[in-house]
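Continuing the series of single-chain predictions for the mutant panel. This is the parent chain; the variants come on the following pages.
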Amino acid sequence: MIRLLCTLLATLCFHATSWAQAMEVPVGVVLLHGKWDRPPTNVLALSRALQDAGFKVETPLMPWSEPRGYDASYSQALQEIETAAKRLREKGATTIVIAGQSFGANGAIAYAASGRQVDGIAALSPGHTPERGNFRKSLEPSVAKARGMIESGNGRDKAWFEDRNQGQSKTIRASAEVYMSYFDPDGLGNMQKTAAQIPSAVPFFMAVGSADSMAAVAEESIFKKAPMHEKSRYVSVPADHMGLLSIIGPELTIWLKSLGR
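Parent structure:
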């Protein structure tokens, strides 16, 4: 009887382990926060929801965060994202997705455009538009200042420049070269440009709230610039720029699981 009970217990443990392994999704997500965010970042709740769904998640603190204050260039930021992706692979993730909210979405698109290895990108409430409208116009003096410093050989020197985020403005202290790497209208921050450089093999998920200031232009000017992939998807939800994070989890989870099949 004891031997039978031990056999039954071992069988149950085996099946329980097999079920858990079958439920684990081999997708790793680098989830990037938005501009001026600080720990605990606004993507933390979404990160936990994705982990509960079986995904491996990395949430690096990026140079555009409040604590770091643009202490590294955009190119260096992409290298930091690559390092986070490497950590996910070391943890067993076989499919890597770069996702982000607001400036983090900008970063996800720029990462794919750089040609680095990635299996999908997700742009949630994409933001930071140095090439567009009032954002571009308001920052023209700072961009001209930084460009002049670079042309005169003082690109590594620090100065005060303007930054904007969802209608708010503040001055930041950074080197002219670092500032230009993010705010050059023709640089890596231009999502219209970088979206067109996403490789055709990379699926693209974009979600924008109907009350977001980007709602009227994001699909046409960014999402549709990228090569269409059969798994690419554009989602509009009833939310504002920040509110999207609290409701996009189920839609994003379904899409991420489709990549792991």
